[in-house]
Every structure is written in structure tokens, then in C-alpha cells.
Specification:
With 168 residues, the chain is mostly helical. The chain is 66% helix and 0% strand. The protein starts with 5 loop residues before the first helix and ends in a 6-residue tail after the last helix.
């Protein structure tokens, strides 16, 4: 379990002080969710979620769930500025384990289990990032250069042109 530092407390206070719409936007960005998935996590119908985005206030129970989710994210160091990788939110990280989105969608939120799963997602994302950096460093050491933005666009256009598109 992560310790609650003054920075976490200050970050949480800042997010809790936001409007409901801004809190839901924070959840969307921090968890890399779409609105349908956010509705699933908040255990409401999409029309209800859209009502909240238009300014309606959630019930006390729903507001408490939002508050709990924001608390878990703050304690885990996750925010819109430091979001989770969507791959580790939607897919199980272990065999026979629920995905993070399934844990977030449970009737009762097990905060400690969520914090553990978020920590595991952060570790996996960090390891993937380190592997990518190491691979890029090896390629640079072999004399390969990073393509320019223009070269990337040209390569993408070429790859798209060479695609075998289905016949209509």
C-alpha cells in the first residue's frame, strides 16, 4: 500500500474541489476510459452519465463512488497528467485475474485491491517503456536514426497504400 503523502493529499483536495463534470473528465483521462466504460465503472446508464456531463448532480451514493475512485487514483499517483495505459486497464494483467476495469466496476470497491492492481499496471507500463527505450537505444547504437515527422508521415502513407483493403 502506498503512503498518503502531503502531495497526494493536496492533489486529492484539488480534484475533489472540481465540479462533477471536471471530476468525471479526470476519471476518463486518468483511467483511459471512454464514456461507456465510465458509465460501467460508475454503475449508471449512459443517459445518466450524459445528464451529469450536462450539469445534473449525481445522487449521494453516486457522488460517494466518484469520490472513492478519485481517492484511489490520488493514492496511486494516477491523474489526467499521469494516466494509466489503456492496455492495462482493459485486459487482465494475470491469468485468471479480473481486469482493472472489472475491479473498478464491482458493486463494492475494494480500495486496497484496486491500489494494488493500479500499482501492477504502472509497473507493467514502466517495464514496457523501459524495453522500448532500450530497443531504441540499441538501434541508435547500430546507426539507425529516428525518422523525422515528415518521414513518418510518408511511411504511414506508403503502408496505407500497400494495404490489402477488402472489396465492397
Amino acid at each position: 500500500m502506498k503512503l498518503v503523502t502531503p502531495e497526494v493529499t493536496a492533489g486529492f483536495r484539488k480534484v475533489v474541489g472540481l465540479s462533477v463534470v471536471e471530476q468525471m473528465q479526470e476519471l476518463l483521462a486518468a483511467l483511459s476510459l471512454n464514456k461507456s466504460q465510465l458509465a460501467q465503472v460508475l454503475r449508471v446508464a449512459r443517459p445518466t452519465l450524459y445528464d451529469w456531463f450536462r450539469g445534473s448532480e449525481p445522487s449521494a451514493i453516486n457522488a460517494a463512488r466518484i469520490h472513492t475512485l478519485l481517492s484511489v487514483l490520488a493514492r496511486s499517483g494516477v491523474s489526467a497528467a499521469n494516466p494509466l495505459n489503456t492496455r492495462f486497464v482493459r485486459r487482465p494483467m494475470d491469468l485468471d485475474a479480473p481486469s482493472l476495469i472489472e475491479l473498478l466496476s464491482a458493486d463494492l470497491l475494494d480500495e486496497e485491491r484496486l491500489i494494488g492492481a493500479i500499482g501492477q499496471a504502472q509497473e507493467l507500463a514502466g517495464a514496457a517503456s523501459r524495453r522500448r527505450t532500450e530497443r531504441e537505444d540499441r538501434l541508435r547504437a547500430l546507426g539507425f536514426e529516428d525518422p523525422s515527422s515528415e518521414q513518418r508521415k510518408e511511411q504511414l502513407a506508403k503502408n496505407m497504400a500497400l494495404q490489402d483493403w477488402p472489396k465492397r
